[in-house]
């Protein structure tokens, strides 16, 4: 049980920390209130004091995933002086590495019910990443509707992540690394590099 001195925000953060660790190790299906409470060392009803619904706790955990992905993307892009195409390549790689390296978190982050629920402003956490994609696509393809092309590019990357995670793309393409697939995705949406 938490000590009397543990602050409310401290226990709230610990519940989210436990959830992040749990989803990373065991996948989204392991994220039950009871299991998070058990691993946090509190009664199974304790999380409800901080997260009235299971959806709110899942949203807080997914928010951490979006924040982590955003940090990785910002670090990878650096000062933003590279060409839009080069930045999109880096962002695509970071996105796929995250999706494949943190599959449980990635699955949780894109659950429709969490994004639609509006809990904890999860959509507000995810939209800036898409906004960055739209901006770069607009700079790389000024002739196109950047929002539509960015949406198609994102959908394509999401599909690559799913199919690569299942082993299907490796079988279909014979590739042992997703980078050639990523290059093809970018060529399909942005035109061949150098044009």
Key traits:
single chain, about 200 residues, mainly alpha, disordered N terminus
Characterization of this structure:
With 195 residues, the chain is mainly α. It is 74% helix and 0% strand. It is built from 11 helices and no strands. The protein has helices spanning 8-26, 33-40, 47-50, 54-77, 84-101, 103-109, 112-117, 122-140, 146-166, 168-173, 179-190. Helix 1 crosses helix 6 (103-109) and helix 9 (146-166) runs antiparallel to helix 11. It is elongated. The protein starts with 7 loop residues before the first helix and ends in a 5-residue tail after the last helix.
Could you give a short description of this structure?
The chain has about 200 residues and is mainly alpha-helical. Helix content is about 75%, strand content about 0%. The chain is elongated and about 60 Å long.
Strand content: under 5%
Count of alpha and pi helical runs: 11
Spans where pLDDT lies below 50 across 5 or more residues: 1-6
Major beta-sheet overview: none
Total strand count, please? Answer: 0
Protein structure class:
mainly alpha
Instruction: Give average pLDDT, whole number.
Output: 89
Rg estimate, integer Å: 19 Å
| Helix/strand order | HHHHHHHHHHH
Helical percentage: over 70%
Give the overall shape: elongated
Taking the alpha carbons of the first and last residues, their distance comes to 62 Å
